[in-house]
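Deliverable D4.2, example record:
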Amino acid sequence: MSVTPSHIIEYLYCPRFTYFEYVLGIPQYEERHFKVEKGRMIHDTKLEQNKSYLRKKIGVTEKYVDQYLTNNGLRGKVDEVLELNDGTMAPLDYKFAIFKDRVYDTYRTQLECYAVLIEDNFKKKVNRGFLVYTRSSNKLVTVTIDEKAKDNVRKVCEAVINIIENNEYPGSTKYKMRCNGCTYRNICTR
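Output generated by the structure prediction step:
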């Protein structure tokens, strides 16, 4: 069994997301949100437009577009896997978003998941990732990725798999405000 960056992000928001969606099979219906659909369309367009473009200002020597990567616990599709002139590699992800002078935790976690996958598949070091904010004139933002973050991804991956494989009902988030807009608030016994 393997999980995706979405599984990891949902677990970090509240471990019970994993239980309700993947053990009980109660969907979230995220496809109904306009922004998600619009983001997917722009994402696909950017992948087509940028197939021959190398990002020289960040030292890209080679790129691999739309890469589906797996290891023994994680899987995901990376918009671009970049080889850099310093011998490292990095994930690049397009976001249908406006950059507001900060990188959201969900975006950071997604890049950290991709870093683990790239290191496991390409056997090269990853110490940063890149985000392209398509609604801010394709602003490129660099995100540092350290070993602690990659180790945390591996630990959370194991926790998510444990919940799914063992039908384990986990504790809820410690942040009660998250419950207000939660899809599962009516069935969760907080």
